Amino acid sequence: MKTSLSIMNTKLLHMEDCYLKEFDAKIINRGDNYVVLDQTAFYPLGGGQPSDQGTLNGIKVTEVRKENGEVRHFLEKPVEGEEVHGVLDWERRYAFMRMHTAQHLLSGIVIGMKGSETAGNQIGRDYSRIDFRPFRPDEKEVELIAGKFNEWVDKQVPVKIYFSTRKKVMEEVDEKRRVLFSRLPEFIKEIRVVEIEGIDRVPCGGAHVANTKEIGHINIIRTENKGSDTTRMVFGLE
Ligand SMILES: [Zn+2]
Q: Which contiguous run of DSSP H or E holds residue 179?
């Protein structure tokens, strides 16, 4: 889980502005098929959220990954020069933003109702999944959860992203979620908090929408048993 603003020498612009679609940057390192930039709006693969795609000076960025302590932008062909203009594939990124906030909302509802933790998640463009533990819902409960989800969407609740100190967060957050923050490595003192007002507050380095109304209603496609006490929920958005 990334919660710091920069990785090595690359400033991650999405940390402060998830809606940034274009940016200018300097190339600070390069390999055969990648470049490293002084700043980027591209989200690097991680935390269950896929990498962004887009272009640098019109050349296709196929993937952005953290490797050897760098944020590497992998390119279809080499880019000339020392300065680049980056453009995100916004349709793709926005789909992931809606899904990532949906994941937080669903996780927040389930932990609130049942005390079940999110043991894992994978965000996709068309559907996403979350593994909850311990959790074994019946059909009625799944319906109830979907209904609650849609209520929070209809309520148009702001999603706030801010940095806070470990100490402050630990004091403010409820007991169920305190464990999430306590699991962050000790060296991280400044924590990026993603808060859906009134329902969920967790540490996260991902890209999110600014209001629950942008998520849209949920369609829970299926639930699967994963081991004795874990249930996987697979969902899409309308
Ligand atoms: Zn997250």
A: helix 175-182
